[in-house]
């Protein structure tokens, strides 16, 4: 099975993704079709025999770290010099979006650790991170209400 995002492709084990109680488990349990009109495969030969999931909204770095969580039960939160508060806030929102409890717990723990490490009270960094969480979750909640 493959996961694609922003031109990046990860070969993943279906059994690993299906072991979670999440969006990915649901995607793995059925015989969903890889449809060219969804731009999953662009007609490549591997589309015939492999399943593909394309995640369009989340950014390849975030998807990479989420997939790392499936395999390693952890993820790296200080990549490319990004603010760990912001990074973990987005990871929390992604965990909520795809219903990945382990990732949600990790993001919450790492977010809390970053607050302690950087001795962040109500600084602009913390306020920005909180806004990221609420904006992402509000978008997700409004999308699910439409369905």
From TrEMBL:
Any matching Pfam family: BTB
Positions of the BTB domain: 2-111
Cross-referenced InterPro entries: BTB/POZ_dom, SKP1/BTB/POZ_sf
Coiled coil: none
Top-rank taxon: Eukaryota
Name of protein: BTB domain-containing protein
Lineage: Eukaryota, Fungi, Dikarya, Ascomycota, Pezizomycotina
